[in-house]
Amino acid sequence: xxxxxxxxxxxxxxxxxxxxxxxxxxxxxxxxxxxxxxxxxxxxxxxxxxxxxxxxxxxxxxxxxxxxxxxxxxxxxxxxxxxxxxxxxxxxxxxxxxxxxxxxxxxxxxxxxxxxxxxxxxxxxxxxxxxxxxxxxxxxxxxxxxxxxxxx
Length: 152
Prior knowledge:
Elements: E1 8-12, H1 18-28, H2 35-43, E2 47-53, E3 56-66, E4 69-77, H3 86-97, E5 103-109, H4 113-121, E6 125-130, E7 145-151
Parallel strand pairs: 4-5
Antiparallel strand pairs: 1-2, 2-3, 3-4, 5-7, 6-7
């Protein structure tokens, strides 16, 4: 276990956190967001919730709220801190600070069984697919996304 509850904190992120978010995004995803995309999302009103340990960002939740619904764009946890309940902690904290939210949705790669299992544990249900959603890989294969929702 990489961390303990005593040294892990949550806080709202802002444009000053773009570089650290970008570095974590790049370390975790093969298809990562650019610095400009992350900055633009934050500046245009997306919510960014950071999970920190000893002043290092070890996770984040990036989302877009529309009235009483929220689309989670990314939930990211550093590989060293996975399976410690941080995704649940970030999701619960986000919901607690947004009492108007009645439902949440996200997309996940069909092949990402670990993330799908995590989201299921968080109360999300698989409700559909988006065919050929992700950009083609080197062989031209376009992977489907699984659409998941959760009532709050």
